[in-house]
Amino acid sequence: MARSLIISRFVLLFFFSSAFAGTPTRQTTVRVVNGVEYLPVAGVAANYGGRCWWAGNRFVLLLSGSDSSLQEFVFITDSNAVIHNGKKLRLPLPALVEKKQCYLPAVLITALFPGLTVPPLNTVEGEKNKDTVVLRLLLNPLQRPETPLLYHKQKFSSLELRLTLGARTDSGFARRLALFGLTSGNPLLNRIELDTEALGVHLLFTFRQPVMETIFTRANGIELRLWAKPQRRVSRVVLDPGHGGKDPGAVGARGTQEKDIVLDIARRVKKQLTAAGVEVILTRDGDYYVTLAERAEKAANSNADLFVSIHANAAPNRNARGVETYFLSEAKTDWERAVAARENAVFEKELSNPLIKDNDPVSLILADLAQNEFLIESSELAARIQESALNHICAEDRGVRQANFYVLRNIFMPAVLVECGFISNKQEEKLLCQPEHREKIARAIVRGILDFIPDYEKRLNGTRE
Ligand SMILES: [Zn+2]
Fold this sequence. Notes:
This protein is α+β, with helices and mostly antiparallel strands. It has three domains: 9-112, Copper amine oxidase-like, N-terminal domain (Copper Amine Oxidase, Chain A, domain 1, 2-Layer Sandwich), CATH 3.30.457; 120-228, Immunoglobulin-like (Sandwich), CATH 2.60.40.3500; 236-461, Aminopeptidase. The chain contains twelve helices and 24 strands. The radius of gyration is 31 Å and the shape is elongated. The protein binds zinc ion (ZN). Zinc ion (ZN) binds at residues 242-243, 249, 258, 311, 343. Zinc ion binds at residues 242-243, 249, 258, 311, 343.
């Protein structure tokens, strides 16, 4: 009579703790690495009268099956391949090799014993319950395990799910699975694939739209509940009019002050965005000074999705004109460095704030990390605003640029700084003083933001988990 045993983590644990008591040379505890539970293969071998040994970079495990057939498994160091009786299989979860010990994910241990009564997966069924889809992976009713079926979930995106089960499949499972995929007509589920090259039962679920899920272990198998992931909307924007109060910003030949121009543009952007259904928060709404920390704090507390700082430019060359849009990154040109230096100047005194302390490289890196995460989005938002500015105000295109603006550093969302025109240029100063021109600039910024939002929403709701 062959040994008959249903293997589960609990049974294995019991065996290990009793079998290895007093033999401290063997690791018998479950180890958890990256959320995966591991068991030592040597312990399994010892409990089944199997043998295992190292041969070069290989770990060989020999077990006798229920029908006295020999089961050979060869694990290769630094590889996700395992060779079972000469057939190469993939490990859906990596093995752990440490101090001449080989550890396997607990959920895969069962796959080493195909001759024993490993729970056999028999069929799949599904039903829709309001907005929830219920999928059941059912075991053969004649061979139900006494202990819960083990599973391990991997989810790299909300459009797919990988499930490794401590089970085997019975002869008809693959066919029933394919049939289910063809006939279920499920609104969320695209397909379920059985990975026939993997050790153990490894299923790949792909979805028609981003989903969330919970998984339950039942007496008759595994139950998945799936529902559509709530879509995240971009609904709030922080507008940051530069300067204010004691800090006039750039001043033109006619005495025009940057702080007044940019506040007026910001208010116009706010009005238009609000009309388009986007909520707006201003970091200042009057002629007063706002510190760097206060601007960052306002952005952080606003639970907003985008940050747009609005400025006007100045250059020693009085002919310089046009629009530039910046995102935070290291300046590449002397001009970019000069613009950042001018806009940062007033904040220099505030740099005692530990988060934005300029002379401390670690603080600097931490602060920049905030924006690094949104580097691509910020550069795209900059591109949209720049493109829109060219369309709306026929300005000279000075391009999307990058520089180290303190005001963008501690902002945990896509963030850009728009230089709307040159106060130092006589003609542009005159234009900036005209309400119609400022209205056009506002419209350009609004269009850029509104063009960016759908793409950004797609990314927020798409594949990243
Ligand atoms: Zn400025």
